[in-house]
């Protein structure tokens, strides 16, 4: 059996984790072009990686308010700190279908999103990655409690 170098095997594991983790992972550059689109996003948005990679996030998701989103990304690019979008502020950034409609009565997926800086080896921040959590179950419990 052929032995692969440890670095190659670790790289393969990282790619596998990014594609199969139970959260959305997207990388965008400073021009808001999509660089990485993981399996979670394909499954939930219905958009294949080849449909979105290299395209503007605002072209693929015209419902995202550009000026508002640019303001959310500004501290990430300018200061190198994280920025957050919670479902309480905005129910979703990406209108994704609720994939568990029988157990959860929602027309879309509620989301918590973290915008994270990605530093080059020289420390520059040319890209950021978004991690998208499905918080539909939590949101529905809170919303139902407020209705009671």
TrEMBL record:
Q: Name one GO biological process term.
A: regulation of DNA-templated transcription
Q: Which Gene3D superfamilies match?
A: PAS domain (3.30.450.20)
Domain PAS fold: from-to ranges? 15-64
Instruction: Cite a single Pfam family from the UniProt record.
Output: PAS
Please name the SUPFAM superfamilies in this protein's record. PYP-like sensor domain (PAS domain)
The protein's name in its UniProt record: PAS domain-containing protein
Species assigned in the record = Vibrio diazotrophicus
């Amino acid at each position: 059996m052929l032995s692969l170098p440890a670095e190659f095997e670790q790289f393969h594991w990282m790619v596998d984790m990014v594609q199969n983790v139970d959260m959305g992972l997207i990388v965008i550059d400073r021009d808001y072009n999509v660089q990485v689109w993981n399996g979670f996003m394909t499954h939930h948005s219905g958009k294949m990686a080849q449909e979105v990679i290299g395209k503007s996030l605002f072209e693929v998701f015209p419902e995202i308010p550009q000026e508002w989103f640019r303001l959310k990304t500004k501290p990430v690019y300018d200061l190198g700190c994280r920025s957050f979008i919670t479902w309480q502020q905005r129910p979703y950034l990406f209108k994704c279908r609720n994939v568990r409609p029988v157990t959860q009565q929602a027309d879309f997926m509620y989301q918590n999103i973290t915008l994270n800086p990605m530093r080059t080896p020289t420390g520059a921040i040319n890209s950021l990655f978004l991690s998208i959590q499905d918080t539909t179950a939590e949101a529905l419990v809170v919303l139902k409690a407020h209705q009671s």
